[in-house]
């Protein structure tokens, strides 16, 4: 099984498909920005809107709405399309006895892009008495007039934009790391029970590749953070705790390399591996959930739900976990076979 | 035989130097603001490059272990 080629090619093939689909699929349309940012009630305002992957010019039935917190809308009275990405929408804002400021959501709707939204696009302020003559009214939103985007496209998310594709690599490699660590843990326990050195070799090979994967997870997370949070590293609890977890595992490598007696090396490192896995779980899964965290999946942020991981993403994300895991097993098996050869050589020459 | 191994090793280290030279360029690219306007695709490229470099790094590590074992065998014979 270890020497057979088919599962190695399967892993590599899956990763090639993940790369092609994961990078080649376009994002859904979205709104990058809109200007001006605020207007008074009763005013007529023209919003300059810049879209992303939009088809303003080729779409035929264009409509735009501003939605308030009561889910009621005002439609654009004038639409001026400048290009596929740029358009200007003019709204006659209704008058009203607005007690407090309110932020409105911009909805642009056409048959090519579906209905795309920009939350908090316009801040509605109290107006002067002179422009209280507007005849516009807040009306209920006709949901059946809204189009849906068609075809296989990844979700467009503000701030994330194209980096949503990092899910296939950054998140998947942490999942693959866990599978490798669990395999290492099981083999460490098997060694402690049966005292067979083969289990020790397997455990060390899998844990070693798991550590490489964990360090890739930290580095890719840092790269993602730079583009979305604006810093290579923040003092977010999830980041620090996972860095500590990887450092604890690094100590496993140092432990193995500092003991020369084969049996005590195997016994000590197997026991250490059990403890480091037991500390990994609270460090990565429990402590970050107990406080606030920017990282998805912690402190009340959803991770594997909603639009952050919809079905189009899952279709690439799950194969990516399988592909990276198979690749990790491949690397581990090379490391394991090498250690077997080394032992054989030592036996032959003593 | 050892000549062949040496030339192979120097090829590997050259490759490593080229790959390491790519990293500061990537860092520079991250600081340029216009990338925000094209949807931050460079972040994805950076992530894939890191993954690739780590896998190559692990292969080099295994490669050196194999070389050591080979050399021990050669000396023995």
List keywords for this structure.
heterodimer, A: 350 residues, alpha+beta, Immunoglobulin-like, 2 domains, 6-stranded mixed β-sheet, 4-stranded antiparallel β-sheet, B: 77 residues, mainly alpha, 86% helix, elongated
What is the compact description of this entry?
The complex is a heterodimer of chains A (350) and B (77). Chain A has helices spanning 6-24, 170-194, 197-228, 237-258, 262-290, 311-348, and strands at 30-35, 38-40, 44-52, 63-67, 72-75, 78-81, 86-92, 102-110, 114-125, 139-140.
Count the beta strands of chain B.
Answer: 0
Structural class of chain A: alpha+beta
- Largest interchain contact: A-B, 34 and 27 residues
What helical percentage do the residues of chain B reach?
over 70%
* DSSP strand count of chain A: 10
Taken together, the total number of domains of chain A comes to 2
Summarize model confidence as the mean pLDDT of chain A. 89
Order of helices and strands of chain A: HEEEEEEEEEEHHHHH
Beta-strand residue percentage of chain A:
15-25%
Radius of gyration of chain A: 28 Å
Output the structural class of chain B: mainly alpha
What does the average pLDDT of chain B come to?
Answer: 71
Ranges of chain A with pLDDT <50 over ≥5 residues?
Answer: none
Rounded to the nearest angstrom, the radius of gyration of chain B is 18 Å
Mind describing the biggest β-sheet of chain B? none
Contiguous helical run count of chain B: 2
Beta-strand portion of chain B reads under 5%
Strand order of the largest sheet of chain A: 2-9-8-4-5-10
């Amino acid at each position: 099984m270890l020497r057979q080629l088919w599962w190695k090619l399967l892993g590599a093939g899956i990763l090639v498909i993940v790369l092609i689909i994961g990078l080649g699929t376009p994002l859904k349309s979205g709104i990058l920005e809109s200007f001006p940012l605020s207007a008074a009630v009763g005013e007529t305002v023209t919003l300059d809107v810049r879209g992303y992957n939009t088809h303003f010019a080729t779409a035929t039935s264009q409509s735009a709405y501003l939605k308030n917190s009561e889910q009621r809308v005002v439609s654009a009275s004038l639409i001026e399309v400048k290009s596929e990405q740029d358009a200007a929408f003019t709204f006659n804002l209704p008058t009203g006895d607005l007690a407090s400021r309110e932020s409105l959501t911009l909805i642009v709707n056409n048959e090519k892009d579906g209905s795309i939204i920009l939350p908090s696009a316009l801040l509605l302020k109290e107006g002067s008495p002179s422009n209280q003559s507007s005849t516009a009214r807040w009306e209920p939103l006709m949901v059946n007039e809204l189009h849906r985007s068609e075809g296989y496209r990844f979700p467009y998310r503000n701030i994330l934009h194209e980096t949503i594709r990092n899910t296939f690599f950054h998140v998947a490699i942490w999942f693959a790391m866990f599978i490798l660590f669990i395999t290492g843990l099981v083999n460490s326990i098997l060694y402690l029970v049966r005292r067979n050195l083969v289990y020790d070799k397997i455990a060390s090979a899998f844990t070693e590749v798991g550590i490489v994967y964990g360090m890739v997870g930290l580095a890719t997370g840092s790269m993602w953070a730079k583009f979305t949070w604006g810093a290579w590293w923040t003092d977010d609890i999830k980041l620090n705790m996972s860095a500590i977890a990887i450092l604890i595992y690094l100590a496993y490598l140092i432990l193995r390399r500092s003991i020369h007696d084969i049996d005590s090396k195997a016994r000590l490192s197997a026991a250490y591996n059990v403890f480091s896995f037991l500390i990994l779980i609270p460090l990565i899964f429990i402590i970050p959930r107990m406080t606030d965290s920017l990282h998805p999946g912690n402190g009340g942020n959803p991770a594997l739900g909603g639009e952050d991981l919809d079905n189009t993403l899952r279709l690439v994300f799950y194969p990516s976990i399988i592909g990276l895991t198979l690749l990790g097993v491949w690397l581990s098996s090379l490391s394991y076979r090498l250690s077997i050869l080394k032992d054989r050589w030592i036996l032959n020459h003593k | 035989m050892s000549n062949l191994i040496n030339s192979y090793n120097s090829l590997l280290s050259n490759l490593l130097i080229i790959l390491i030279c790519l990293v500061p360029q990537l860092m520079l690219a991250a600081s340029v603001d216009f990338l925000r306007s094209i949807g931050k695709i460079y972040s994805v490229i950076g992530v894939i490059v890191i993954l690739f470099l780590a896998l190559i790094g692990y292969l080099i590590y295994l490669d050196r272990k194999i070389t050591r074992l080979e050399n021990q065998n050669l000396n023995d014979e």
